[in-house]
Design goal:
Blueprint lengths: L2 E5 L3 H13 L3 E5 L2 H8 L6 E5 L7 H8 L7 E5 L4 H10 L3 E4 L4 H20 L11 E3 L2 E4 L4 E4 L2 E2 L4 H11 L8 H9 L7 H18 L6 E4 L3 E4 L2 H5 L1
Parallel strand pairs: 1-2, 1-3, 3-4, 4-5
Antiparallel strand pairs: 6-7, 7-8, 8-9, 10-11
Helix pairs in contact: 2-3, 3-4, 4-8, 6-7, 6-8
């Protein structure tokens, strides 16, 4: 049974969403503010967390910042209807997805299922039809999906599941351009709608993480109006 942490200061949301998740067979841990959640989640890590952004004492953005120092578990943000700044900030801090309030509980449950399924595949090192369980090595980059390990020049780079799947999709075919729809399919699976800005924010965070290890990292290239590609060093060298 997967364990879901639900953090929101709205008691109605805590009650209704936790009931819906429990009906789907999930164990649900509920918290009404970020400080309470941080204290509990650092002791008992769930399989996934759903965080509201607007909360007293400690908001969801600050909570995620603390959590990302200790865990790469999947995180979904609940955001206000028109607050694009919070959405982008949350993604840049390492959230895997976001859903705008008011939201459909069925949509939230489907997003939760998708993220849990991806995380389980990564943990188990399961074989996928496209062979994505194979170790990928591109120059100084090494990706080992079976252990969810990424290294650059021999140094570990700590990635979320979404970030790992994105760099894997790009690095498997150096020089080949992936548009945003293709990257969404690689990271989230087909039939899941994710805004283009979500991919852009994940790519920005990926670059930041690699540059914290090597400030000369330039392997992820942007082709404006087209998409992204992993630099083909063989072509560059030639």
């Amino acid at each position: 049974m997967s364990k879901i942490a639900l953090v929101d200061d709205d008691r109605n949301i805590l009650t209704s969403v936790s009931m819906a998740l429990e009906e789907e067979g999930y164990e649900v841990l509920t918290y009404s503010d970020g400080s309470e959640a941080l204290h509990a989640l650092t002791k008992e890590e769930p399989d996934l967390a759903v965080l509201d952004i607007k909360m007293p004492r400690m908001d969801g953005l600050e909570l995620l910042t603390h959590l990302r120092k200790k865990t790469q578990m999947p995180v979904i943000f609940l955001t206000s209807k028109d607050d694009e700044v919070d959405e982008l900030t949350g993604l840049r801090l390492g959230a895997d997805d976001y859903i705008k309030k008011p939201f459909s509980q069925r949509l939230l449950i489907e997003r939760i299922r998708t993220l849990l399924r991806r995380a389980e595949i990564m943990r188990a090192g399961g074989v996928r039809p496209n062979g994505s369980d194979d170790v990928v090595q591109r120059g100084d980059l090494v990706l080992d999906p079976s252990r969810h390990m990424c290294s650059w020049k021999g140094l570990h780079v700590n990635l979320t599941v979404t970030e790992f799947l994105l760099i894997q999709a790009l690095a498997k075919h150096p020089g080949h351009v992936k548009n945003r729809d293709q990257l969404i399919d690689a990271a989230y699976g087909e039939h899941i709608y994710v805004d283009d800005r979500t991919i852009d924010s994940h790519i920005k965070r990926l670059r930041k993480k690699f540059r914290e290890t090597d400030d000369e990292f330039k392997e992820i290239e942007t082709l404006y109006g087209v998409g992204y590609r992993y630099r083909d060093t063989a072509t560059v060298a030639g």
